[in-house]
Amino acid sequence: FITKSTRQEMRGTERRHVICKVTKATGQHILIEGEDEDSPYVAKVIRLFGDESGKQKKAVVQWFVRVSEVPLSKRKLLGREPHAQEIFYYQGRSCDDEVDAGSILKPVQVTFGALLPPFPDSALSPPPCPKPSLPPSPPCSPPAAAPTSRGATWRALPTPDLDVMRRAAQGEVRPSRATVSAGKAFAAEAESLHSVTKLSASKCLSAKRRNNSARTPGVRKKLELNSEKKSMISEDILSQLLDEELEGKSAVRRLSDSPPQVLSFPHSLTPIRKPHKAPGALGTFPLRPSSIVLHKVSLSEGNKYHIKILKIISPFSTRLPVPSKYDELLLLCDVDRAEVDNEDSPMLPVAVTPRSSKRKSAQLVSSRIRKQLNLLDNLQDLNSDGEDEEEFVPSKKELQSSSEEEEEEAGLDSDEEVVFKKGRYPAAGSRTPQSKQRTRSSSRTPRKTPNKKVTPGTPRTPHRAVPNIPSRSLPARQPANVLEEARTRLHVSSVPESLPCREQEFQDIYSFVESKIADGTGGCMYISGVPGTGKTATVQEVMRCLQHAADVDEIPPFHFIEVNGMKMTDPHQAYVQILQKLTGQKATADHAAALLEKRFGNPAPRKETTVLLVDELDLLWTRKQNVMYNLFDWPTRRHARLVVLTIANTMDLPERIMINRVASRLGLTRMSFQPYSFKQLQQIIMSRLNKVKAFEKDALQLVSRKVAALSGDARRCLDICRRATEICEHSAADPSTTGLVGMSHVMEALNEMFSSAYITAIKCASLQEQLFLRAVIAEFRRLGLEEATFQQVFVQHQALCRVEGLQPISVSEGLAVCQRLGACRLLLLEPSRLGVLQRVRLNVSQDDVLYALKAD
Amino acid sequence: MSKRKMENTRLPVGECISQVQEMLRERLCHQQLPDRPEGVEAQHKHLLELLKRTAVHGESNSVLIVGPRGAGKTMLLKCVLRDLQEEKEAQKNLLQVHLNGLLQTDDRIALKEITRQLHLENAVGDKVFGSFAENLAFLLEALKKGDRSSSRPALFVLDEFDLFAHHKNQTLLYNLLDVSQSAQAPIAVVGLTCRLDVLELLEKRVKSRFSHRQIHLLSNPTFSQYLQRVRTQLSLPDHFPDRKFALDWNASVETLCEDKSVEDALRRHFNSSKDFRSMHMLLMLCLSRVSVAKPGIKPADLVEASRMSFADAKANMLHGLSILELCLIIAMKHLNDVYEGEPFNLQMVHNGLRAPAAARAHPTGRQLFGQNSEGIPADETHAGPQSDHGGPAEVPTMPHGRQAVGHVGVRLAVCKRLDFTWTFVCCVLCPARQ
Question: Do residues B50 and B172 both lie within one domain?
Fold first, then answer.
């Protein structure tokens, strides 16, 4: 009953203008450019309008989502295996329903099917209903598996050419048990692969089609009115119906053969369908009982053609403006009529395609089907009195019947599928409609290369080898004593249970991201702070929490992606990494940028917000800053649903390195992580140690105070503590120690890490080196400058040697001494090729040098 | 006698000498690690503990070994690794990656080398190395997938660590140190450098990820230790085949070290540089003089070797100069004094050259110049004003009976008067400066 024959398929290029028009017909199902060429979005046009300037055409659409777009977690709720081509009504508000007309690719035919479980487990059992509480995008559609001819079917048929059409028709003979519909078959064969079929074709339909295709190879355009098929059991009728159906695509219904029958179909069928669908819809998704407007138009062109338009008021409460659609259809009819004339006349007497019903399973199934069909007939009869009604109230009986029918169809489908497989690709074991389709098309059309099989639809398996560090041959030893335990806990890498001292920041970031996710909007945040203040750790903690919240359905699900400016070789690699983490695709930087642009720029029934963490933002700086620009621009798009968290070290990074348009897009949501105070550091260590008693309290305080005074870097603090435990361990033999890390150990560790080695180095230098340093200082004093040439210093050195009673050294030796000091960076030297003319500067303060030399 | 026979120790002298040469050369050329690192026991222990924890416990670490050139950084590390390999637990577990800043001059090369040394290229199949970016992602993924308890720890040795800090963005260092500070595959990063200020080279985010452990090899041996070291380096071990020869040799080494002139020479070396590498160079020179005819190191050998190693390289160059070249140098020195280091051109040098020629009262001097300065026209050689400048004026007065003597005399004279002769040699050799 929810039949929609809105798909006008134009064949060949000569109809392009018509297609354009068709595309814009309201109520049509269309394909909209997606992020991926192979899987465009599906939507139904609700309204067309021009924007303010009138230059750009826009459309208000009702989105449908593919199975693949439904988050996994929701998919489970469906309770069955959805067909790959199945689409679901999208009710979420998070997606903008306004699209640019330019992004519309082509119309598709969508077959609406009943909500029924797939064949094997179906029988009469009612379809499992998804949770009523489904978040924005509940999988709405009836199970693709069970194509009921009764069920409202929307079929999408992209313009097939003659061959394709024929093939498709044949192909439909065995639509997959689940969801392969005629439309899909067509689509596949037309190489568009775009069509999304909501429901599979009914068994009757398929049979019809098969016959039809056998008989009428020439038919190109057919309006498919799904409703009719049920009642037709006989081959003749079926074939007729098929013809009609095919014609129906172009909104022309050929009734030449048996007009009365045709006319009867919609009426007889509608009642059945409606009930059928409505319950399912109601049960599963927020569908309102749909009302159907049935328009019959007959074009009395030699009595031969009738145009029948079935108008559907969508179950989703989108009212299709009747007139406009109607007009379009009429127009199409005009266009098509000639063709139909030409094509139809010769088509009738054709050999019936041999059915491979020999196989047992097929026979079995077909017998079952027959039974079911009989049942259906009865039902139809019952319902026939409701023919003329335009709106129906669903009845339970009908629902049941339809479900039966569905099952039957599924049986048929599978049967056919099997046959097909046998025919050409015995190895193609996959039952997924897609693969079937593909196989079918390839079997029918040899010119299609088999590599077509590798379609975008199948998830491309990443061919990248997975690198792995070999695993250790002996197990890692576990910490044996308190100090080792403490050391393990104090290692920076050990993930703490919680992040102490960053509660406020945590809260801010959490609420920021959460609100964005909940609203389905986007935004940027800039986080700054010196290294080791827990920026990345906090964000990751937030993400863990949010992920948890998403898992328990408190907030909508989201994607979390992390890129690090330091972990890429070039700023533009950011695109590549983001894309790869988002979709698994590999692309060059330019291509990745384009794909991301498309993804974030175009509307789509995208379920999930993307949270992108960009660490070390300053490394994404390029001359034109386009990487940063894009990163901050995407969240501002209406459809992007992108939250960007950026991290860098400097607080004023936006002001310093970003040009205005970038800084402005980054916005003012900023957060600064202050260096830890000594109390916080202490708390961090305590929480990490978590009751492992390894440190004296004073020792901890000393470390914290020292680090807080120097940098406030938590990493430093932990490293010092770790080193202190080692020192403590080494001195454990000393009986005076308590076994705890005490002040002395910490002091030693601090000295090791913070004391400058310069003074020690000077003390350890050889006599001539020390003399040379002295000479340098003497020469500096003489010149009053902090720089001298080697020549000048060497004169001083010779003098000092005489004073010290040493044998004066040769110039080569002097140069060697100078070079050695330069290698240690006690002296700063110019490149040595300058020889005696190179300039010498001290890298240490004169006081340090004198202190070191005096103590000597 | 019977004892000797029993030990089968009597070898021909030539055989013994070649054995000595081989053994000591191996030792002096650092091909053989010492059994115990001398003077750096504490550092050795520290490093060994650290690496052992990585190997055994899977604890990630990073450490820098800092010390002047020739201080024994590499030796220390090699000793530690050798000792580490002796432990079964560590030996089976540890993967090693050795990089050198002089070889891996940028991150791209370094990454390839790491991938190769970790044998990760097996995982990539035939397509071994992709782009730089892929390589990086590949390696990071590999490291990220590991974890503390299950992955084999990897040891990254970065020789000339400071050069890695000059790579673009310090990407490699950041990533290695980041891995060492996060819960990924356990790695130990050991950097070797002679720069004391190496930490200042690190970007602050890289620096923050470094554990700040530094092992300084700043030994301060006294002269007696130095002398002892010479002794041990020269003495033959007990397991030398010819025991008698070994004893004789060792005794001669003892006497050598007690010799006054030797001690002076060594002290001079000690004053100049305490590092052992220069001492080894000196001993190598002595060792190479040992032959069948002279089985043993004599004090004169060492003194001569010391004289050679202290010889002024630039002054040595003057030995081979012709008279004309020397004259040019003298003229330049003169000009240098006159113009106080300002640059001068060939014309000026040439003009300066004529002065000494004209100043010569002595006919032989003139003759000398006439004979040897083909490049200078005779009239010019004889013309020219008087000169009263010291340097050039001395040339005629030198003894000139024989060429060689004249050369040496000139050198001595020049060297005495001009401290910076080599500057002018440079001028001669580098036309650009004239």
Answer: yes
